[in-house]
C-alpha cells in the first residue's frame, strides 16, 4: 500500500523556516529586546537585507547535458544545475553556516541536484557516482546544525535530494508499525499517523522542517523522548542504498538471530549510504496531555528530584529543568504583561516566593501523556517529588508560553544572528553522578580561559531527555559578535567547551550529531581498534570514499582524488 502525500520544505536557502513566520524581536519579544539592548548597549536593527550570493556561486563542473550522460536513467526533471537549486541545498543551519552567509564568506554549492523517487533510483545514482568518483551529499530537510552538509572544496559533488521520497509504504495497525520512505517531513508523517489514531512520538525542535531519514542519520532525540525514546529506540528496520548495493534485513519485534546490520546506519550521517525506507514503531495517540510545573531553590535540588523520579519509574514525556539564568531568559519571552486581577495575583505570588527563599528559582516543566488512569497518578506523584526536594508547584499554565513557542524558537535564533549576536547551542549527555559537576565545569572553563563574561557573554542551560542512568545538558550561549572575527570567536568558544565536555566524561553530542563541527572530538573518543573496525565497514560499503567525504571518518581513509575531473564514459 502506498499513501501519496505531497510535501516540500518552505525554508528559504539562507535562514530558518518559513519567511512568513519570521520574528521581529521588538514586536514579538519586546522584553527580551530591551534586556539585550541595555545589557550590551547595543541598538537592535532588524532591517536586514540579504546580499546577492547566487551570482557568487562556483559554477557546476559539468553542463546539464553532461550530467544527463552520467545519469542517463533519470528523467530530465530529476536533474538540476539551476543556481537557485544549488544554493538552496548547499548548507545546513549551523551557526557557522549562518556566518558564511552574513559575512560574505565563499559558499561551495553542490554541482548538481538529483531527485530520486524510490530506492532503486538512489542505488543507481550511487552506482554511477561511484564509477565517476563523484562526492555524494544527502539533503532531506536541511536543518542540520553541525556542518554535516558542508562540502569540502574542491570536491565535485552530487546532492541527492530526498524530498520526493515522502510516502507511507505500509501500515500495520495490529502490530502498531508503519513503513515510510525516508524523505517524509515530520508534520506529514504525524498527520498520516494521527488520522489513524497513532503517533510516532518524535518531536525535535526542527520537527516542522526535518525528515525521518535525517532523524535516523543523526541519531536524533525528540522533545518527548522521556516516553517514546530516541529515534534509535523507535526503528525496527531500514533499507539503505550504498555505492556497493542495497542493504536490508528482515525485521522482528525482538530477536536473537545475530547482528542487526541496520543499526550501523543509525547515526552514520550519510557516510555509509543513504537511508531510503524505515519501518518504525507507532503508538496510540494519548487521550490528553498534562503539565506539571515547579520551581526549586537550586539547580542541584531540581536535578536530584528528576533523578529520583525517573529512577522510581515515573516517566514524563517532556522534562525540562532550566538553571537560574535560563529561567530568567524564559521570563523575557512573554509578549504581554498581565493585567487586572491576574497582574495583582502574579505580584503577590512573586513576593511570596521571594520571601520564602525562591529569589533565583530554577524552573521545571514536565508534560505527561495521559493514556490511562495510571498516567494520571504518575503526574500527581511527580508533584510529590518536587515537594520532597523543597520545590514549589506552580499552575500548569506556567508552561503554556514555552509550549506554544517550542517549534518557533529557531526563528528567534536567526533574528539574533542577523543582529550580529553570537548564539549557539552545545549539548551533551552524561551519568547522573557527573551531571552537575560537568555543568559547573563548562561554565568555569569559559570563565577561566576567556574574557567571555567580561564582555557581557551569557550562558544558560537546561536538563532534558532524562534516563534512569543519566541525562542531557543543553547549553545556550549569547554574546555580541566580534566584528571581522566572528568565525574565530565562535571557534575558540566551541573548542574550549568541547574540550571540557570530552575531558570531563560527556558525549560530544546527545542528539545533534557529529557533522564537520564535532568530528575532531568524536574521533578522540574512539579507540584505535574501533576506528579500524569502522574503517573496514566504510571500505566495504563505500570503496571510493564518495559518501559525504570529510565527515565521521579520518582523512586517511582511501583518498579517491574526488576533485579530479574524470572522463564521462
Topology:
Blueprint: H1 25-28, H2 30-40, H3 64-70, E1 79-80, H4 83-88, H5 95-102, E2 112-114, H6 119-132, E3 135-139, E4 157-161, E5 168-172, E6 177-181, H7 186-194, E7 198-199, H8 212-217, H9 225-228, E8 235-242, E9 245-248, E10 274-281, E11 283-284, E12 288-296, H10 299-311, E13 318-322, H11 324-330, H12 340-355, E14 362-370, H13 373-388, E15 392-394, H14 400-405, H15 409-418, E16 421-431, H16 432-449, E17 458-464, E18 470-480, H17 486-503, H18 519-524, H19 528-541
Parallel strand pairs: 2-4, 3-4
Antiparallel strand pairs: 1-2, 5-6, 6-10, 7-11, 8-9, 8-10, 12-14, 12-15, 13-14, 13-17, 16-18, 17-18
Summarize the structure.
This protein is α+β, with helices and mostly antiparallel strands and 569 residues long.
Explain what this protein looks like in three dimensions.
By secondary structure, the chain is an alpha+beta fold. It has a domain of 118 residues: Vanillyl-alcohol Oxidase, Chain A, domain 3, CATH 3.40.462.40. It has 19 helices and 18 strands. The strands form four sheets. The protein has a seven-stranded antiparallel sheet, sandwiched between helices. It has a five-stranded antiparallel sheet with strand order 5-6-10-8-9. A four-stranded mixed sheet has the order 1-2-4-3, with helices on one face. Helix 10 runs antiparallel to helix 13 and helix 16 packs antiparallel against helix 17. It is globular and about 75 Å long. The chain starts with 24 loop residues before the first helix and ends in a 28-residue tail after the last helix.
Amino acid at each position: 500500500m502506498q499513501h501519496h502525500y505531497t510535501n516540500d520544505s518552505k525554508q528559504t536557502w539562507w535562514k530558518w523556516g518559513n519567511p512568513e513566520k519570521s520574528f521581529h524581536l521588538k514586536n514579538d519579544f519586546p522584553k527580551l529586546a530591551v534586556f539585550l539592548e541595555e545589557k550590551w548597549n547595543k541598538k537592535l536593527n532588524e532591517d536586514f537585507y540579504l546580499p546577492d550570493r547566487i551570482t557568487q556561486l562556483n559554477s557546476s563542473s559539468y553542463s546539464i547535458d553532461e550530467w544527463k550522460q552520467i545519469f542517463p536513467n533519470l528523467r530530465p526533471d530529476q536533474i538540476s544545475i539551476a543556481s537557485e537549486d544549488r544554493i538552496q541545498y548547499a548548507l545546513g543551519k549551523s551557526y557557522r553556516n549562518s556566518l558564511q552567509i552574513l559575512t560574505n564568506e565563499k559558499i561551495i554549492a553542490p554541482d548538481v541536484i538529483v531527485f530520486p523517487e524510490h530506492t532503486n533510483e538512489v542505488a543507481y545514482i550511487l552506482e554511477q557516482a561511484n564509477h565517476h568518483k563523484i562526492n555524494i551529499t544527502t539533503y532531506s530537510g536541511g536543518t542540520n546544525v553541525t556542518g554535516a552538509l558542508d562540502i569540502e572544496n574542491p570536491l565535485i559533488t552530487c546532492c541527492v535530494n530526498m524530498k520526493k521520497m515522502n510516502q507511507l509504504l505500509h501500515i500495520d495497525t495490529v502490530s502498531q508499525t508503519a513503513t515510510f520512505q525516508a524523505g517524509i517531513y515530520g508534520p506529514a508523517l504525524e498527520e498520516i499517523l494521527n488520522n489513524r489514531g497513532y503517533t510516532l512520538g518524535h518531536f525535535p525542535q526542527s520537527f516542522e522542517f526535518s525528515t525521518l531519514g535525517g532523524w535516523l542519520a543523526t541519531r536524533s532525540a525528540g522533545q518527548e523522548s522521556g516516553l517514546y525514546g530516541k529515534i534509535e529506540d523507535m526503528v525496527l528496520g531500514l533499507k539503505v542504498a550504498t555505492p556497493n548495493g542495497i542493504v536490508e534485513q528482515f525485521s522482528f519485534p525482538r530477536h536473537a538471530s545475530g547482528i542487526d546490520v541496520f543499526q550501523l546506519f543509525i547515526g552514520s550521517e550519510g557516510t555509509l549510504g543513504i537511508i531510503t525506507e524505515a519501518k518504525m514503531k507507532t503508538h496510540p495517540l494519548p487521550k490528553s496531555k498534562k503539565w506539571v510545573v515547579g520551581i526549586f531553590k537550586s539547580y542541584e535540588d531540581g536535578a536530584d528530584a528528576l533523578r529520583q523520579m525517573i529512577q522510581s519509574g515515573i516517566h514524563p514525556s517532556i522534562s525540562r529543568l532550566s538553571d537560574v539564568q535560563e529561567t530568567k531568559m524564559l521570563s523575557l519571552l512573554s509578549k504581554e504583561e498581565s493585567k487586572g486581577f491576574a497582574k495583582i495575583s502574579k505580584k503577590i505570588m512573586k513576593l511570596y516566593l521571594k520571601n520564602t527563599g525562591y529569589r533565583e528559582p530554577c524552573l521545571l516543566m514536565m508534560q505527561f501523556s495521559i493514556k490511562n488512569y495510571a498516567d494520571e497518578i504518575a503526574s500527581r506523584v511527580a508533584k510529590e517529588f518536587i515537594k520532597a526536594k523543597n520545590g514549589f508547584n506552580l499552575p500548569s499554565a506556567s508552561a503554556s508560553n514555552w509550549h506554544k513557542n517550542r517549534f518557533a524558537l529557531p526563528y528567534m535564533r536567526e533574528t539574533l544572528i542577523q543582529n550580529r549576536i553570537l548564539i549557539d547551542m552545545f549539548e551533551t549527555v552524561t551519568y547522573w553522578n557527573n551531571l552537575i559537576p560537568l555543568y559547573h565545569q563548562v561554565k568555569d572553563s569559559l570563565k577561566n580561559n576567556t574574557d567571555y563574561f567580561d564582555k557581557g557573554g551569557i550562558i544558560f542551560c537546561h536538563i532534558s531527555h532524562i534516563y534512569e542512568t543519566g541525562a542531557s545538558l543543553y547549553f545556550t550561549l549569547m554574546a555580541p559578535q566580534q566584528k571581522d572575527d566572528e568565525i574565530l570567536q565562535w571557534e575558540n568558544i566551541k573548542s574550549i567547551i568541547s574540550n571540557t565536555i570530552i575531558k570531563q566524561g560527556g558525549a560530544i553530542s546527545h542528539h545533534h550529531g557529529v557533522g564537520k563541527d564535532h568530528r575532531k572530538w568524536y574521533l578522540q573518543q574512539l579507540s584505535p581498534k574501533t576506528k579500524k573496525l569502522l574503517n573496514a565497514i566504510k571500505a566495504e560499503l563505500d570503496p571510493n570514499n564518495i559518501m559525504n567525504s570529510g565527515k565521521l571518518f579520518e582523512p586517511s581513509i582511501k583518498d579517491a582524488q574526488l576533485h579530479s575531473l574524470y572522463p564521462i564514459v
